[in-house]
Design brief:
The complex is a heterodimer of chains A (193) and B (239). By secondary structure, chain A is of the alpha/beta class. Chain A has 7 helices and 8 strands, in the order βββαββααααβαβαβ. A 5-stranded parallel β-sheet of chain A has the order 5-6-7-3-8, sandwiched between helices. Chain A has a 3-stranded antiparallel β-sheet with strand order 2-1-4, with helices on one face. In chain B, helix 4 (72-87) crosses helix 6 and helix 8 runs antiparallel to helix 10. Classes of the chains: A alpha/beta (193), B mainly alpha (239). Chain A binds chain B through residues 49-51, 65-68, 70, 72, 74, 76-80, 82-83, 86-88, 95, 99, 113-114, 116, 132, 136, and chain B through 133-134, 136-137, 140-143, 147, 151-152, 155, 235-237, 239.
């Protein structure tokens, strides 16, 4: 089922962030939402994820099983990468599968896996967050600037990884970068343009 | 060493063994106490009760903090009790307990009362300051409560719990022994302190006091070490 956003309005302390926003996000496709900083993209995502209630309007069709890469990494920093991913995966997912995913997004199994993620660089943490989101059982995937802090080959590897593992899944990506839209082969919604 | 030096200088200046015993005399008396019949029984009597009160308070304080952190109404309801326990003089509680309870278990109760508000306050502060963004993440990913405790709450609460334990161990011994001195339960360290006062034996008083300090410090070091190891065990699952 498509996700329907109807006349969504949201204010914070008198500041109108979302003003009667309307859009339809197709099911089982990748959709990128673009807009200038502060226009309300993350607020919209938080409404879709259920963390915020809109002041007006409604949202229909958001599946129950959600997964996300947040604007912040939101990792458990005292635990290693595998543990962070295992936290959200079912028992059927083996350590070997998790390690395989982490390796395919460019993390070194030999050097990195024993360390707590608190010792990782920003780019490494980001990639763990992406793997966590991909491997969690979900019907819809929210990605809020998922490739922030990644550059060059690392970013390309991460984009390829996301593309490879999100075929046939509803994916909503917030991004500033039109190149990411192209690379993800995603629909583009830019209601603030 | 500096503390011993200050003590020795003080004893030398005062030069009255019935006012301040010298370190040498106290050490000699300590060795003498160890060989006396009933010494280890006395030690065990007080140790078991004070540590029991301490551990009960640790459990109860943590549990109450969890409930109060979850339900603000509970926090509000508990506030006057916690404030009362913090403010009422220990001696008042000791005398009340002597009327209500058997003097044999007085130190359990007093130790418990002194430690409870410290553990509760520290743990509640820790729970309330837990990263809400991590909790949101756990909600979105449908992480169960046991995993939330293991991955989010325990690592965050560790410094609060360690601080509460470190601060409250000494206090539990101080208050527990004070309760025994007033209640004078048979076979307790408090009774020994009371008798040193009755027989005006300054060496005995100093010796038992030094013993209490040694036990308290050793117990604190050991307990905090074990707690740290427990947290390390919980936080480093194998790959």
């Amino acid at each position: 089922m498509d996700i329907h956003i109807k006349d969504i309005t949201k204010s914070f302390g008198g500041n109108l962030v979302l003003d009667r926003l309307n859009m339809t996000i197709p099911e089982k496709e990748r959709t990128c939402i673009m807009g200038p900083s502060g226009c309300g993209k993350t607020t919209l995502l938080n409404i879709l994820m259920g963390f915020l209630q809109p002041d007006g309007g409604r949202v229909d069709g958001v599946p129950r099983l959600k997964s996300a890469v947040f604007q912040e990494d939101r990792l458990c920093e005292d635990f290693n990468a595998v543990s962070n991913v295992r936290l959200v995966c079912g028992k059927k997912t083996s350590n070997r599968q998790i390690l395989s995913h982490l390796e395919s997004i460019g993390l070194s199994i030999k050097d990195d896996m024993a360390k707590p993620v608190g010792e990782f660089s920003g780019g490494m943490k980001r990639r763990v967050a992406i793997v966590r989101a991909i491997m969690a059982q979900s019907e819809v995937l929210f990605l809020d600037e998922p490739f922030k802090g990644l550059d060059g080959d690392t970013k390309k590897t991460a984009i390829d990884y996301v593309k490879r593992h999100t075929g046939g899944k509803t994916v909503i990506v917030v991004t500033h970068d039109p190149e990411e839209v192209k690379a993800l082969e995603a629909n583009l919604f830019a209601p603030w343009s | 060493m500096f503390a011993l030096l200050v003590w020795q200088i003080g004893a030398t200046i005062v030069n009255r063994s019935f006012l301040i015993a010298t370190p040498a005399a106290v050490v000699q008396r300590l060795f003498g106490l160890c060989t006396e019949a009933g010494f280890f029984g006395t030690l065990g009597f007080s140790f078991a009760r004070i540590v029991s009160g301490y551990l009960l308070a640790l459990a109860a304080g943590s549990l109450l903090a969890v409930v109060a952190g979850r339900f603000h109404t509970v926090e509000v309801m508990l506030w006057p009790f916690i404030q009362t326990i913090k403010s009422v003089p220990v001696a008042s509680f000791i005398i009340l307990c002597l009327i209500w309870l058997n003097s044999r278990n007085l130190s359990v109760f007093i130790s418990f009362l002194m430690v409870l508000p410290i553990v509760y306050t520290n743990m509640l502060q820790g729970i309330k300051s837990t990263d809400k963004k991590l909790l949101e993440m756990a909600t979105l990913f449908r992480v169960n409560w046991l995993k939330r405790i293991e991955f989010i709450y325990l690592p965050h609460l560790k410094p609060f719990l360690m601080s509460a334990c470190s601060v409250s161990i000494g206090l539990s011994w101080k208050a527990g022994i004070a309760a025994e001195v007033i209640g004078i339960p048979d076979g307790s360290i408090g009774e020994m302190l009371y008798e040193s006062k009755v027989y005006y034996s300054m060496v005995d008083l100093f010796a038992w006091t030094v013993l209490i300090v040694i036990i308290s410090v050793v117990f604190e070091k050991l307990f905090v070490y074990l707690l740290r190891k427990l947290f390390e065990l919980l936080q480093t699952p194998r790959v």
